[in-house]
Amino acid sequence: MDEHIVKSYDEELKFIVRRICEMGGQAEHLVERAVNAMVKSDLAMAEAVITDDALLDAAQRELDERAIMTIAKRQPMARDLREIVGAIRISNDLERIGDLGKNIAKRVIAVHDHPQPMQLVRGIEHLSELTLQQLKEVLDAYVERDHQRAERIRDKDEAIDAVYTSIFRELLTYMMEDPRNISACTHLLFSAKNIERIGDHATNIAETIYYIRTGAQMGPERPKSDRTTSIVVPPEAAGSAPASEA
Amino acid sequence: MDEHIVKSYDEELKFIVRRICEMGGQAEHLVERAVNAMVKSDLAMAEAVITDDALLDAAQRELDERAIMTIAKRQPMARDLREIVGAIRISNDLERIGDLGKNIAKRVIAVHDHPQPMQLVRGIEHLSELTLQQLKEVLDAYVERDHQRAERIRDKDEAIDAVYTSIFRELLTYMMEDPRNISACTHLLFSAKNIERIGDHATNIAETIYYIRTGAQMGPERPKSDRTTSIVVPPEAAGSAPASEA
User: Fold this and answer.
1) Among A1, A2, A106, which Cα is nearest to A45's?
2) Could you report the per-residue pLDDT of A20-31, keeping only the tens digit for each?
3) Judging by beta carbons within 10 Å of its beta carbon (0-12, 13-18, 19+), is residue A3 exposed, middle or buried?
4) How high is the ipTM of this complex?
5) Per the domain annotation, does A209 fall within a domain?
6) CA-to-CA distance for A127 and A162, rounded, in angstroms?
7) Which residue in chain A has the smallest CA separation from B179?
8) Is A243 part of a structural domain of the chain?
9) Where does the record place Low complexity bias (chains A, B) (predicted)?
10) Mutate which: A71, A178, A191, A194, vs B, most B CBs within 10 A
């Protein structure tokens, strides 16, 4: 950590931005390994993810304090102020992404000796690929401060939600087919939900980039994220046709 | 809204603190009604909760901007700075409590025409009572800036987790008994998880109060919150003895 080196205001700003980029890389890596640990039932990797999340928590706390001290000392206005406030918001989103990854890793222990159906595992892998792609793109947009790219990224959250909805249905159907699947599927359900929420945080970051660059809120209202809150799968659907919405 | 009236620094601080208290009351009320809507299958109340959450989002955004402008303009140090930073953190927690309440309300639609077993409903009511009590106490501790009380509140999070863990087991067992319960129980499962997370946010607020008052972090590490991540209920347990942990 290069504390005490920071001297000028400009350097303080650069430090904060660089730290956000580092945290972004850590968060991506953490989520990737958490899903890998889940898919491969890799307990050692799951343990490593749980440990590493603490680093992200510490980074967020440090960035938070640093950013606030910079605001207090330097009284930045307009774009500079938005840069720092934006960094606080983004680091908060990244820290929560880390928590969600950790929560997936914790579930690996519960799921690891239950056979998981290939189709479900593929679904969760696909969901996490989309979400990690979203996260990667939003971090690139942050580096470039590209608010138009940020807008396009937000729109792509729809695709993640559609995949999550289909996994949600599949999981319920699978639980209905055989009660022995219920415990494992419940943890997969929470894991899928966590990945979907990581997508929401990527969307938050996109909105923050827009705010940093333009000083305005990205409008109109973001699309509804989780549509599964109203899904009911009738038990008759289990083992037959795809489930229908109530 | 009394914008433009705020004149002195002291008034700005008071405005921020007052607004946090208002948001706290709104968040409490929102969660209470969300759980009531769930328990009574009251769709109109659920709709009202979903609408009202937008007010909390707007209040958080306004407080955030106001607090940051105050930091930039007034360069507060030490306790004053912690007051404002603390307010930003607490309003973030309150906004997320509102989101979790809204998410419960959205699930009322999916669950409302499925018969819910009394025991489960009682469990969720009990969980929400404990959590609302925790939230109420932490808001009182904020008003009093009582960091010792905040410490005691954090310790009580254990009780909420224990009740959540028992509801989690019950829900899995109930799903195994009859596949027709699976859809509704999944939504109850997410609702219970949301209430447990509201308890975590109350804990965050307790930690922030400690920070405002003392300038230090509350130590040692907060207790592990969600222990259900490792729970596996064997299907044989359904309908018979209480489920055992894997």
Assistant:
1) A106
2) 999 999 999 999
3) exposed
4) 0.80
5) yes
6) 9
7) A176
8) no
9) 234-246
10) A71
Calpha distance A202→A204 (Å, rounded): 5
- DSSP class per residue in A24-60: HHHHHHHHHHHHHHHHHT-HHHHHHHHHHHHHHHHHH
Nearest alpha carbon to residue A104 among A192, A167, A173: A192
Burial of B134 (0-12, 13-18, 19+ CB in 10 A): buried
Span of B57-61, B103-107, B223-227 with lowest mean pLDDT: B223-227
Q: List pLDDT tens digits, range B49-104.
A: 999 999 999 999 899 888 888 888 888 888 888 899 899 999 999 999 999 999 99
- DSSP code at position B235: G
| Residue in chain A nearest B226 by alpha carbon | A103
- Asked if residue B3 belongs to a domain, the reply is no
Contacts of A182 in chain B (CB under 8 A): 172, 175-176, 182, 233, 235
Query: What CATH number did the domain enclosing B170 receive?
Result: 1.20.58.220
